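Weekly sync, protein design subgroup
Attendees: M.S., D.O., the rotation student, P.L. (late)

Item 1: inverse folding check
M.S. brought a backbone from last month's batch and wanted to see whether the design step gives back something sensible before we order anything. D.O. pointed out we never logged the input encoding, so this time it goes straight into the notes. Structure tokens as presented (471 positions):
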């Protein structure tokens, strides 16, 4: 993840200058278009999805996108395409990539004490994207060479994911260039604060959550004797910024904005899955026993997950019964109900359950995965393909959907389609050479002129990308 942007710049099929980098032209203007930013971000995501820290959890990803798009709708560019994703890292951090890709560490999700606090971070990162700060930071430096521009761009990205890597990336640059980069970053942070506050208010969330969260992180910094949370190091807070936020909120009324149940369930799921099974079981047992803090429904949800991880399905079902009565209309609760129901090995009943659940929650991918699995087991291949094809239209970057599609094609004896679906699965997971091998196998399986032409086109693009990435 430390070399993402530099790789993306080299790999991106943009107009290039003599050094193989995008021809930025007049650096006094933003020379990277929104379309080019998106291309850079997409290629960066190949690296991110291949990294072991990428959290491939559809429920957490769907929640972040639901909250994120609630904010995007109230942002300065509501038509901008975004993808929000989670990184399995305890560090309190979040970062924006070019073109609308926003990563959030699990540590930050757990550190946020309200949904509005989490939303305040997302709205800040959304503003970095809608204001095209990456293009402005690169083009506005007026450095001496394209190589220097690429180095500073790589440093900016590294700062979003790894502050230590950022320091190393900046170390070789001239002191004047470093200072210009830092000054420009402060300008961007103030602009992102201003727009983020406006977005929070328009989206119906609490704008006071932004300074509240930042002040709590600053207090943690003092307690840690200078060991600042990563978010403060990658988004430096100055007295001027804090004062500016306070001034803008001086006349904004305080209002209680209740958290969604999904916010608490996602936090519980992170605790339940990131801890060891035994630690998770003790954590939620103690939380429910004390009844002094936290959301009781979410804590019971976490306890059920912990019991399943500890291979106690009977007790998990017993603990789930009151939760189902309390929050049956939540998609995460529905997915957990399906998971528990599958332990009874009643395939016919499970298929009926998932048919209804996916109709009630059509965009909840965890339910789609499980429903497709049940249809495969029941050899209902046409039903499975219909379900998966519909989901791929809505989620074209989800490798799990292509994996399930490939298995369904294999069970149907459709070899060309199987290998092509596997190629997309491999490519989205960052295995470009594996994707190329699958497309070669698809060609050998035979097909129509149209199918072979489409495969050849995919092969050309993947080979170009693999050569640029060295993969």
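Designed sequence read out in the meeting:
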């Amino acid at each position: 993840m430390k070399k993402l942007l530099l790789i993306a710049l080299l790999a991106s099929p943009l107009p290039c200058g003599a050094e193989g980098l995008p021809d930025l032209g007049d650096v006094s203007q933003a020379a990277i278009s929104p379309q080019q930013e998106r291309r850079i971000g997409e290629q960066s995501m190949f690296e991110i999805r291949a990294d072991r820290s990428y959290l491939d959890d559809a429920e957490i990803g769907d929640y972040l996108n639901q909250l994120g798009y609630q904010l995007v709708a109230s942002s300065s560019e509501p038509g901008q395409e975004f993808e929000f994703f989670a990184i399995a890292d305890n560090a309190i951090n979040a970062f924006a990539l070019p073109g609308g890709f926003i990563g959030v560490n699990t540590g930050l999700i757990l550190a946020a004490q309200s949904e509005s606090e989490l939303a305040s971070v997302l709205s800040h990162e959304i503003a970095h994207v809608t204001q095209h700060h990456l293009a402005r930071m690169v083009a506005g430096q007026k450095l001496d060479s394209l190589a220097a521009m690429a180095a500073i761009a790589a440093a900016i990205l590294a700062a979003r994911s790894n502050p230590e890597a950022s320091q190393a990336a900046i170390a070789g640059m001239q002191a004047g260039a470093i200072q210009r980069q830092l000054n420009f970053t402060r300008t961007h942070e103030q602009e992102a604060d201003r727009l983020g506050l406006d977005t929070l208010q328009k989206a119906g969330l609490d704008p006071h959550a932004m300074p509240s969260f930042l002040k709590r992180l600053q207090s943690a910094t003092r307690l840690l004797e200078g060991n600042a949370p990563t978010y403060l190091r990658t988004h430096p807070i100055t007295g001027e910024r804090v004062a500016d936020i306070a001034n803008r909120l001086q006349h904004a009324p305080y209002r209680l904005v209740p958290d969604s149940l999904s916010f608490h369930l996602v936090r519980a799921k992170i605790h339940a899955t990131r801890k060891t099974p035994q630690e998770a079981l003790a954590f939620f047992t103690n939380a429910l026993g004390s009844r002094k803090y936290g959301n009781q429904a979410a804590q019971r949800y976490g306890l059920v997950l912990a019991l399943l991880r500890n291979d106690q399905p009977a007790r998990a079902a017993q603990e789930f019964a009151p939760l189902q009565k309390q929050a049956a209309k939540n998609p995460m609760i529905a997915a957990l109900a399906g998971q528990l129901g599958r332990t009874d090995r009643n395939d016919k009943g499970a298929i009926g359950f998932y048919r209804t659940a996916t109709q009630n929650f059509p965009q909840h991918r965890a339910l789609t995965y499980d429903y497709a699995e049940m249809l495969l087991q029941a050899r209902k291949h046409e039903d499975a393909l219909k379900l998966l094809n519909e989901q791929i239209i809505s989620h074209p970057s989800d490798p799990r959907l292509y994996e399930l599609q490939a298995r369904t094609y294999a069970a149907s004896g459709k070899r060309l389609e199987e290998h092509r679906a596997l190629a997309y699965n491999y490519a989205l997971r960052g295995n470009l050479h594996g994707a190329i091998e699958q497309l070669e196998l698809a060609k050998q399986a035979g097909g129509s002129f149209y199918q072979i032409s489409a495969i050849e086109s995919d092969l050309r693009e993947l080979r170009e990308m693999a050569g640029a990435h060295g993969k």
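Discussion: Residues 60 and 266 are 6 Å apart (CA to CA). Residues 1-30, 143-157, 165-180 have pLDDT under 50 and may be disordered.
Action: P.L. to compare against the previous round before Friday.
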